[in-house]
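Record 1 of the preview.
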Amino acid sequence: MPLNRNFDNFTNFDTNKGIMGDFTHASNLYRRNNFRLAPKVKFLYHVVIDVNPIALQSLGNNVSNLLNKREFNILASSADLPNYDINTETINQYNRKKVVQTRINYNPVNIEFHDDAAGLTTLLWEAYYRYYYEDGNYADQGTRPRAYQTGLYDSEPQNTYRHGFNRSGKTYPFFNSITIHQLHHQNTDSHFTSFTLVNPLISGWEHDRVDQSDASGIMKNTMRVDYETVLYDRGYTGDDNPAGFADNAHYDKSPSPYISTGSGSDTTGIENGWTKVFADIFLDILGITEFNTEQQRNLRSPFVTNPVTTDNRVPFNSNTFFPQSSTQTAITTAFFDAAFESTISQRELQNSTIKQRDLARNALRNYAIAQGSSNSFNDNGQLFDNLNATQQLQLQQAVVDNYRVDPTLQGAAFTSTLENIIGG
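->
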């Protein structure tokens, strides 16, 4: 007679999931290999509208000086990626049905902008409007320009005003191109995938509507664009790549010290911070031991990690079903890998206090274990935190000085320096 379904897990002690486990299809698909197959997110993008500077200059210095900064690019609140309709036709090929392509249609895309307080996105349309159409160039004649005060039967000198497309000087296209960049990670590096609209023309522009009853909405401008073809590209992101990306005038490129925000018993300094916050959650609220805290720390570590193992079998008649945090074989352990040298440059290490502290902490922990420390693995992980501030800085500097020569940080030279620091 089979066991009750509620107790089937008791027959699975020898599996790698112990007596309880969930399916890991999503984790295996999306998280493995640095989230290689994880889906891109919609809110990471950068739009580049390349306006012809010669066309801008023809409208005067006031307009060109404002729009040449290209700030309207970062005001694009949403954008459609290109989409296509392909015409096909079914014909007979010796009594066999054959589908052939006859045409590809590039459908218009919409780009929405914030209607900003500086008026830049409205000015972008005004510049386009004045460049291609004469109608908008009579603003200096008041709200009822002279060009719109003439009648059909007025004398010829009074009917010499230009209107509509009858505009001189529009030799160059207003837009060179419009490119929408998807931003995403790939193997821990920042990448973009770009879609360039060739020879774009505005086929529609919509200013928003004002509404006295809407107290929470924000104003926007919407541009509909037709284009002749699409070019695809890919690359690494960087300063001004894509154009205007990571501009110091608008981007905050200083990393947040998310690993700690507190000191002592509070959470307002720089030492304990989030460590205390999460320790409170795991220990006081959930009742989970340091086992999970160590796992989380190693997930943020830049080193190669071994998976959690459960080779310490729990007897069926034991009252303790789960391994304790003091059991080293049940803990995800971090170790140094010489191949890691290719993933961290010396410059990056010098500029990253977080990486320096992680390297120093793990080096000291591995040293203590190699010396036969009787402490638990988790206790050894606190050795660096127990050093005084001067010793911590000295050890971090030693890591930077020795990393290029010995990325494992286990050579005799580094070990001697480490012993001098902790011995002092």
